[in-house]
Amino acid sequence: MEAEFWKNGILLLDGAMGTVLQQKGLPPGGQPELLNRSAPEWIASVSREYALAGSQVVYANTFGANRRKLAHTGHSVQEIVTAGVTLAKQAVAGTPARVALDMGPLGELLEPMGSLRFEEAYALFGEMARCGAAAGADLVAIETMTDLYEAKAALLAVKEQTDLPVFVTMSFDEGGRTFTGCTIPSMARTLEGLGADAIGLNCSLGPDQLLPLLRQLCRHTRLPVIAKPNAGLPDPVDGHYHMAPEAFAAALLRGLEAGVTIFGGCCGTSPEYIRRLRAALADKHPVPRRYAGKAFVCTPTRPLRLDGVRVIGERINPTGKKRFQQALLEEDLDYILDVAVQQEDAGADILDVNVGYPGVDEVDMLPRVVRKLQSAVALPLQLDSSNPDALEAGLRVYNGKAAVNSVNGDPEVLARILPIVKKYGASVVGLTLDEHGLPQTARARLDIARRILDAVLSYDIPREDLWIDCLTLTVSAQQSQATETLRAVRAVREELGLATVLGVSNISFGLPNRALITQSFLIQALNMGLTLPILNPNQREMMDAVAAFRVLSGEDRACRDYVERFAGTVSAAPAAAPGAGLELEEAVMRGLRTEAGQLARQALQQGRESELSLVERQLIPALDKVGEGYERGRVFLPQLLSAAQAAQAVFEAVRASLAARGGEPVRKGRLVVATVKGDIHDIGKNIVKTMLENYGYEVIDQGRDVPPEAILETVQARAVRLVGLSALMTTTLPAMEETIRLLHSLPEPPVIWVGGAVVTPEHARRMGADYYAGDARASVEIARKVLG
Amino acid sequence: MLNVEEALRYLGVRGPVPDGLRGQAEDVAAQLTARITPRFVYRVFPLLREGERLSLSGTGIVLPGRTAGTLLAQCDQAVLLACTLGSGFDAMLRAEQARDMARAVLLDACGSAWVESGCDAAEAQLQRRLPGRYRTDRFSPGYGDLPLQVQPQVCAALDAGRRLGLSVTESLLLNPAKSVTAVIGLSDTPQRARIRGCAYCSMRESCTLRKGGNHCGS
């Protein structure tokens, strides 16, 4: 077989299967892949017609033949996939057409949108891929994806479990986003990085609407680009596609000029469309594309071109931060998410993620933190570890194109880390030091940068994916090194043209008024060509300096961002002192988060209150007053939660104060909350959690769609005495009952309370729950009764 | 238009709304409507009648029970409708929960009101496309005695997975969260409004009032 047949010239794919079957009179309904067994001659005839019409690749009828969708059909994946591939191969026999194993979405959303885990999705696709390869498929076509994460699971499965070439196409709306918000640059750079052989767009739009999106895609990838649109847009009333074959072919031909080389059709198309396409493309040649790779990282919704100054937030790092260390050891991922959210709100573009700390298993923790952060933060992440297994585990579950921090000039480190960077298509930070240490001169650091670049290129990692960190040393300890670092930055920028990283905060260690030194160094470094400063975005001085630099460098066009940042602010006005007449109790009741936190810190610092008395004598009574108002219908849920969050700020002050002097945390008792198996919406459970935490209870949140066994395990392992279960749907009440039954099988079962949308006191009684809670406030009362 | 009053009602707000709360709700609503537009698809199917048995031609969907029987009594066609705020809303809600739970519950309620207004927009479009046809109230799987079990078939008939990104879980939940499917009958004679409140309300599954047999009286 001709190697890499998709790379040279124009390649013609097939059109729709379902549309043609319906035209032929096959009644709709049922799962289409089962026709491989029940009506093989129908399926084979369609494939045959496509091959005769000129399709060079015919997709086997395996789109939804995954274990999940076949679950209740009595057929196995192996049976249906093997039948599908075999039918297609027989049908195209005697023609030059190749056969693709077709893999569509699994029909269930992955985490965090749904509850399907990434690893399960990987396993489902892997099974299909293995069966398809064994049946003799020539390639794999992953198509109609709307979730980049699902596409990644499928692509990894094919790459790791077969040797077949793989095409990936996704479905976008006219605005250039998929249903899950994925952008075209994010899709292109992520899938190319992961090793797809060709990428493109299929379904959802007709060729006219697809054209601008194809142009955009061609600008963002080196790979061959695929266009497989529908026959126009469906009629909204009857659902049919009406674009005629000749119009379809003419419209799609314009994709050729954009740089598309692989063509086909999706919903509403038939062999006639392919015949027309073949005729239209007969005397045509690929149009060469120009692609200048630019440094880039992304999440699906946040493509980030590194063509200016981009701030990397440094706060997710336990070094020197007692409270963060405590959160890591307690696996308090909510705290880590909170640190991330603050940096995002402060204007960070990328977040560095370092969870290395004695007593923490990084290989387990890094991917967990990545998932947690990506559930609520849109920013791209830079995974910061020297442990290759932790990096691989983190990159594997990362959704998008991440960065790795870091490698250095030591050949052993390069050999250990770069294969992982290559495999997952990440960007990587190269530190200008090696096995002999950090050179003292800018020249020597540049030499190491060159060596790292050579190594990166030797792994076939694109040049733009390497960022160089020339390393900041503490100026109070090694004063001459500050200028040497700055020179090195300039040399790397000018001579290698690579993006440059620098953790600037180190510079001022040990000096008074650190912010001034750090800010001055930052400004000088930016001036020397620093593009990716790592800093604390919560420090206003730093972000102000970056904002000003972006104006002076011309990056902030028409000073728009700068004006937005500072418009309306009065310079040098002192912030109103929070203590001005405001008592802690009132701050909590009014839901003033910042003020409540400040008042609590003041009270603790001045030694006016112990941590415990602050909680017991001020905080809880304030929360109770709000709670009473809620019960009487004078205070409503958002206000109740505002008060709870103000209380959270007080608790945060208490925790920080205790952590600083090594005291035991204030804990009123431990309990579990969970939304039962089958239920995926969990805001109600989260409301309960917010309330309980802010009364000082240690809440183990097991999340949503939690199997009974997992709850049992936690209750046993962590000696939990109180369990709260939530259910939203009548269809999941049995899972709640099952969980209670299982917990009651323990010799000393925990106290169980239940609540949630459809649960009534009668249900609770019948299921054997100890308590029923109608709302979050009632849950607090139950916790008090049981745990005190 | 997102009806902020309706959103506040979903949160159990009765009587005079505190100013601060209304302001916050309006702020959240503005942020939501700027970022997310409801999407919908619908299709018109001939309604087949064999004795008491109602089905939608070409789909294999049977609409059993008194609810469908009563509402569709004078109809010869039925529209299946699906409307969703998409997973973008869910992402927004997750992010808001990490920031501010109080705003998150407002966003959740505003999302419910917003997907309903998406359904209203779909009906308005339907009215323009099918002048002279009268519509029944819209009603959803799980309402009255129309079983939740038809949910997967409704989504399949609309190709809602491909066209809206909608999926149905094994426990028959629609995902993304703020999604609605509904049936609307079409007739040549004017149709009486039979349903008030709850059927139109995407909070009905989680409504404390409905649990007690009441409704919010809108």
From TrEMBL, chain A:
SMART domains (UniProt xref): B12-binding_2
Associated pathway: Amino-acid biosynthesis; L-methionine biosynthesis via de novo pathway; L-methionine from L-homocysteine (MetH route): step 1/1
This protein's GO CC annotations: cytosol
Enzyme class: transferase
CC cofactor: methylcob(III)alamin; Zn(2+)
InterPro entries the UniProt entry points to: Cbl-bd_cap (IPR003759), Cobalamin-bd (IPR006158), Cobalamin-bd_sf (IPR036724), Dihydropteroate_synth-like_sf (IPR011005), HCY_dom (IPR003726), HCY_dom_sf (IPR036589), Met_Synthase/Corrinoid (IPR050554), MetH_bac (IPR017215)
EC number: 2.1.1.13
Pterin-binding domain residues: 309-553
GO molecular function per UniProt: cobalamin binding; metal ion binding; methionine synthase activity
Gene Ontology BP term (one): methylation
Protein's name according to its UniProt entry: Methionine synthase
UniProtKB/TrEMBL annotation, chain B:
GO MF, one example: methionine synthase activity
UniProt superkingdom: Bacteria
InterPro entries with a match to the protein in the record: VitB12-dep_Met_synth_activ_sf (IPR037010)
Protein name, UniProt field: Methionine synthase
Organism: Lawsonibacter hominis
